[in-house]
């Protein structure tokens, strides 16, 4: 399994020990990690792309992060230093149907952000390994692999199509969202 890990560059002075703690927790699960923290994320770029944009470090950095997210099976973001770019990267991952774990020493963002691909957690040095291990287990487990056919009345399909457009997803994704909402609302 491939995991992309990132954290705020502007928060490095204040949070580097936490960034390292999360990185060690991810590595301890045995997954392959690509990250700006390791410096191996630029390896995702083709040599021709690197040559074309060699004088534009920001373009190289952003494209490597974008490719890292696209190629990863899951994404972990240390977000203690709240950063617009990290929020954008979390959204990119979610749009690519990647599970995203956003970790902060200050707050659990899953209390604010509701999405089946988003997991937030407030962590400390004692529970970070367990939180990361549970996330890796979750994100490596369930993949869409079972096809289910359903007959609907034309009016039902029309309703689903309108509701899906309103939510900004396709009909299949909308049905999956309804199932997840129903599952999360039940205490079985």
TrEMBL record:
It comes from the Bacteria. This is Nucleoside 2-deoxyribosyltransferase. It comes from candidate division WWE3 bacterium.
């Amino acid at each position: 399994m491939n995991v992309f890990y990132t954290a705020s560059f502007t928060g490095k002075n204040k949070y580097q020990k936490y960034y390292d703690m999360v990185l060690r927790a991810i590595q301890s699960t045995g997954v392959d990690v690509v990250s700006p923290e390791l410096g191996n994320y630029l390896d995702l770029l083709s040599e021709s792309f690197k040559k074309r944009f060699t004088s534009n470090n920001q373009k190289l950095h952003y494209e490597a992060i974008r490719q890292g997210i696209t190629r990863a099976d899951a994404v972990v973001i240390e977000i203690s230093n709240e950063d617009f770019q990290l929020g954008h990267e979390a959204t990119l991952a979610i749009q690519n149907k990647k599970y995203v774990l956003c970790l902060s020493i200050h707050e659990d963002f899953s209390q604010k952000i509701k999405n089946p691909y988003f997991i937030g957690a407030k962590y400390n040095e004692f529970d970070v390994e367990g939180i990361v291990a549970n996330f890796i287990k979750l994100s490596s487990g369930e993949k869409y692999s079972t096809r289910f056919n359903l007959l609907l009345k034309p009016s039902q399909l029309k309703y689903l199509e309108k509701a899906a457009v309103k939510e900004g997803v396709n009909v299949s994704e909308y049905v999956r969202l309804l199932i997840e909402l129903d599952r999360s609302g039940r205490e079985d």
